[in-house]
Write a structure and sequence with these properties.
The complex is a heterodimer of chains A (326) and B (229). Chain A is of the alpha+beta class and 326 residues long. Chain A folds into two domains: 180 residues, no CATH class; 98 residues, Alpha-Beta Plaits. Chain A has nine helices and four strands. A four-stranded antiparallel beta sheet of chain A has the order 2-3-1-4. In chain A, helix 6 packs parallel to helix 9. In chain B, the strands form two sheets. Chain B has a six-stranded mixed beta sheet with strand order 6-7-8-3-9-10, with helices on both faces. The chains are: A alpha+beta (326), B alpha/beta (229). Chains A and B meet through helix 1 and helix 7 of A and helix 2 and helix 3 of B.
């Protein structure tokens, strides 16, 4: 309805369309503008690709790190469940005595499995893991004690039950020292927390940069179409109407950037998956990187679209207003 | 329809574009605004289309004071005013049809209405067969007529034209003015700024004259003025 001329109808109210049809028109109009904005990107493929690339690659780094941290957490959860007890035996205990201990322990109700690791085996494993390799050859004697690894049944694997079991095991005369492998887990968790915090900070910084880059790209788009915006304002276009195509451009930047990020993260994880598998095999842990599922894709796309929209919104709010006919 | 009450406009920097201008153009009237360049014609039109705001005084359209119009409402005000520019202000990379349909698209009409009305508007200005052309392929007079079609396509009650015949020869100028007369006869108020005194002289319309930002005559005899005020 016109402000100046009472009774003068404007817009769809003249067209005698019902509310349902008007709703349909609303969506088709938006769809048309969305497709038009995509067409604009297609017409300047190089510039568009650069912007989409920046967005995609900026999301790749935090995305990859996040999924790695998440997976490490999952693995350590597996470990916590199996909470292993290491029994370090007296130096005086012979191998035969040690085997007797293993036989005795294996019938305990609380214990799922018992493994004997001789000092020689322990040394071999240490060589492989530490990477010290040849340096160890120079040792006159093996400094490592024999170890019996005790895995409690799942019922006795909780931290408190395992601690009680440990006390009981310490009573055995062959045992010099018993250790519940929980401490290092706590340390790992602390490290993971720091890693998560760093990933978060990195993500925030990169997101901020992305918003600025999108904002600047949209600003250039707006300035390029300055004449068109002037004419639209002269014939009565509202700011909202003028802004819409640019917001859709931001949306497309976000969507395409998100897809790029997802593809790159997948590629990176697939690549490092090989070396990670070798590494994790040393710990007898099966390491399948998970997390790149539909949900992760959804989150990544939403985040990316959100950033694209935010960048374009900040830009249009400012610059569309600035262009006024003179 | 258009009423100025003691309107002054001073641009930043102290340039006095208009000083205490008062006049009243009635509904359904066709009037010319003239004066040498720099006399304030463009400023006066800009105050009507709210491209500028008066420093002092009130501009009223159909009794509504434009000083009360907020920034957000300006777009809706412009939908009631058909504007024609000397420089046409056409989008050169869009077809004639797209240019003319712009005001209707902005108002959110159905495709059907848009096609119908654009056709009618192009018919009126005699460019029906050029709908698919780009404006750049048209002559100056034709481009101006595209601008006019765009200004009238949503049937505004008021038409403003700033030097609509500026770049045209006398014959084409006359054709354009005849078009305005047609719209005026259909009940549209028409207000045309021009420095083409020869053109005005050939017609019997009311002529308001600006000189150095002052209105030296508003085209009415003293008796008529007494009747109006």
């Amino acid at each position: 309805m016109s402000i100046l001329f009472k009774g003068r109808k404007q817009g769809a109210s003249i067209d005698k369309v019902g509310p349902f049809q008007r709703l349909v028109m609303f969506f088709t109009d938006h769809l048309r503008q969305a497709v038009n904005s995509l067409g604009e990107l297609y017409r300047t493929p190089f510039a568009s690709l650069m912007t989409v690339g920046v967005l995609g690659f900026s999301l790749t780094l935090p995305g990859t790190l996040y999924i790695l941290v998440k997976n490490t957490e999952q693995i350590s959860e597996q470990w916590q469940q199996a909470s292993e007890i290491s029994l370090f035996l007296n130096d005086s205990v012979s191998e035969a005595n040690a085997q007797q201990l293993v036989t005795r322990l294996s019938v305990w109700d609380e214990i799922a499995s018992v493994t004997y690791i001789s000092p020689e085996e322990a040394l071999e494993e240490f060589k492989a893991l530490s990477g010290l390799g040849d340096a160890i050859e120079y040792l006159n004697e093996n400094p490592l004690p024999a170890v019996v690894l005790v895995v409690p049944t799942s019922k006795h694997a909780t931290p408190t039950a395992a601690a009680i079991l440990l006390d009981k095991l310490r009573q055995e005369r062959e045992v010099e020292m018993g250790k519940l492998d929980i401490e290092w887990l706590e340390r790992l968790y602390a490290l993971l927390d720091i890693a998560k915090e760093l990933v978060f900070l990195l993500a925030v910084l990169l997101f901020f940069a992305v918003v600025l880059i999108i904002g600047n790209t949209i600003r250039l788009n707006i300035l390029n179409r300055r004449d068109e915006i002037l004419v639209m304002k002269l014939v009565g276009a509202t700011d909202a109407f003028i802004q819409r195509p640019f917001l859709y451009t931001g949306f497309w930047f976000g969507l395409l950037g998100g897809v790029i990020a997802w593809v790159t993260v997948s590629a990176i994880l697939w690549w490092i998956g090989w070396s990670l598998e070798d590494f994790m095999a040393l710990y007898q842990v099966k390491f399948d990187i998970t997390g790149l599922d539909a949900k992760a894709l959804g989150i990544m796309l939403l985040l990316s679209i959100g950033l694209g929209l935010l960048g374009s919104m900040l830009s249009v709010k400012r610059h569309v207003k600035e262009i006024e006919p003179e | 329809m258009i009423k100025f009450e003691q309107v002054s406009k001073t641009y930043p920097g102290g340039q006095n574009a208009l000083s205490k201008v008062s006049f009243h153009v009635e509904q359904g009237e066709m009037a010319f605004l003239t004066g040498h360049s720099g006399a304030g014609k463009s400023t006066l039109l800009k105050l009507i289309s709210i491209m500028e705001r008066p420093t002092v005084g009130d501009v009223l359209i159909n009794g509504h004071n434009l000083n009360n119009i907020t920034r957000k409402q300006i777009a809706y005000i412009r939908r009631d005013i058909g504007m024609i520019f000397q420089s046409h202000q056409l989008l050169m990379d869009k077809s004639v049809f797209d240019n003319v349909s712009l005001p209707l698209v902005i108002e959110g009409h159905t495709r059907k209405t848009i096609a119908k009305r654009v056709d009618a508007a192009l018919e009126m200005v005699g460019l029906k067969d050029k709908a698919r052309n780009l404006p750049i392929t048209l002559s100056g007079g034709e481009q101006q007529r595209v601008g006019i079609a765009r200004a009238v396509v949503n049937r505004p009650p008021l038409l403003l034209a700033d030097e609509p015949t500026g770049n045209l020869d006398p014959k084409l100028s006359m054709e354009i003015i005849r078009l305005f007369e047609d719209f005026n006869q259909a009940g549209v108020s028409v207000f045309i700024a021009t420095h083409d005194l020869g053109l005005i002289a050939r017609m019997k319309y009311r002529t308001l004259t600006l000189k150095n930002g002052r209105m030296i005559t508003d085209g009415l005899s003293q008796a008529e003025e007494d009747l109006l005020l």
